[in-house]
Amino acid sequence: MLKVQDAVLSAQDISLELAGRVILDRVTLDVRANEIVTVIGPNGAGKSTLVRCLLGLQPVTSGTITRKPGLRVGYVPQRFPLTPNVPLDVRRLLSLTLRPSADEVAE
């Protein structure tokens, strides 16, 4: 059995309620170094919300989340909004896969 001190990330009985709706209900999980974890479920099941909670981007209603000090996690959300806060070079990079419109090609 995995000991909590062996985990680089540990969630114990985390719950999240938003606008009176239970989104996460007593979720417990531990992740060890170099372990790959996949979260699967139907649309609206709370997968993205769970990841945001684990990363500290969304506070939980109850339970505890512990991350190893100095832990670095890469996270790419399913939808990445392009806002004025995103540097222009990143915005250009992300638009490289977009096809130009007929008007843009004519220019």
Give the gist of this structure.
The chain has 107 residues and is of the alpha+beta class. The chain contains 3 helices and 3 strands.
Fold and architecture overview:
This protein is an alpha+beta fold and 107 residues long. The protein has a single domain (4-78), classed as P-loop containing nucleotide triphosphate hydrolases (Rossmann fold, 3-Layer(aba) Sandwich), CATH 3.40.50. 20% of the residues lie in helices and 28% in strands. The protein has three helices and three strands. Strands 2-1-3 form a three-stranded antiparallel beta sheet, with helices on one face. Strand 1 (7-18) and strand 2 form a beta hairpin. The radius of gyration is 19 Å and the shape is elongated. 9% of the residues are buried. The model has no long low-confidence stretch (mean pLDDT 83).
Q: Any key phrases for this structure?
A:
alpha+beta; 3 helices; 3 strands; elongated; Rossmann fold; 3-stranded antiparallel beta sheet
Secondary structure: number of strands: 3
Number of domain units = 1
Largest sheet descriptor: 3 strands, antiparallel
The arrangement of helices and strands along the chain is: EEHEHH
The radius of gyration is 19 Å
Structural class: alpha+beta
Helicity, in percent?
A: 10-25%
Residue fraction in strands: 25-35%
Give the overall pLDDT as a whole number. 83
CATH topology: Rossmann fold
List the helices and strands and how they pair.
Blueprint: E1 7-18, E2 21-32, H1 47-54, E3 62-67, H2 88-95, H3 102-106
